[in-house]
Write a structure and sequence with these properties.
This protein is an alpha/beta fold. The radius of gyration is 19 Å and the shape is globular.
Length: 317
Amino acid sequence: MPAPLLAHLRRRWLSLLCMAVLVIGLPTSCAVLQHTERELLFRIEPGTASWYRGLPQDVQEFDIEPAGFKAGQSLHAWWWPAARRDAPSILYLHGVRWNLTGQAFRIEQLRAMGYSVLAIDYRGFGQSKGDLPSEASVYEDARAAWERFTVMQPDAGKRLIYGHSLGGAVAVDLAAELSAQAKKQQVAVPVRGLVIESTFTSLGDAVAVVANDNLPVNWLPVRWLLSQKFDSIDKIVDIDMPLLVVHGMADRFMPSRFSQQLFNAANEPKRLLLVPGGTHNNSMSLAGSQYRQALDALMKAPRQMAGPTQVRAAHDS
């Protein structure tokens, strides 16, 4: 199974320390250091995942080329329609390192639960064309995918956004943006709900776990040295849609307390599904029917009206 963000950061703690020292000692090298930080963060594996066994015949592959992209840039996408023509649909946003071929097993599970799935590779991943990703670029990619998603699934009541690991932070950002737009227009949010799995409160919090465990010093202000923030804990309070938070309790890379904190900070309606024995990658398969029931309940929740009268949960600091 894929080794997620914290695993490769643990293996590269010396690089992280060197980067921190350089940031402190050589402020003129910001551009180079930010590029190195992004390389360490996304750590893109070329080619196909070793466990990938090919796509079923009914999966449609195509490229998304938004007008705002530079010439030669595009997103590669998979659209796997459910057997039922009126089935609900999921926009799937993956995490770091592995492209879509490394996500096929999880996409297949969602489709087996009765959902159509639109999944993308961010620019720089897989067959998508573009430069090394950044926080800003993956947010742009998610918005471009959302525009295509609304065409593939025109019924707002049958749309879900799903993000795994770092993709959870991308999904939170997209959901917060959609909520802000709906609030401004005083209309219902154009999506049934949000699902985030095995994700974190902020990248700074995630990297701090690695730094505290592996760096020979504990005084470096790791959070402040990062140019990539992925600050979900501050954004999730602005999301006006039903939420499902999932985390494996045996996740060695991303502590489940992050999901608990996100859940505490989020608005109702919300549900936290902690999976005993679940790791970073197998909570969906391990939870089985419980996971399916949680998704079904999310689909039955009423769509939210975004506005000043919305009740907000207290921020768990």
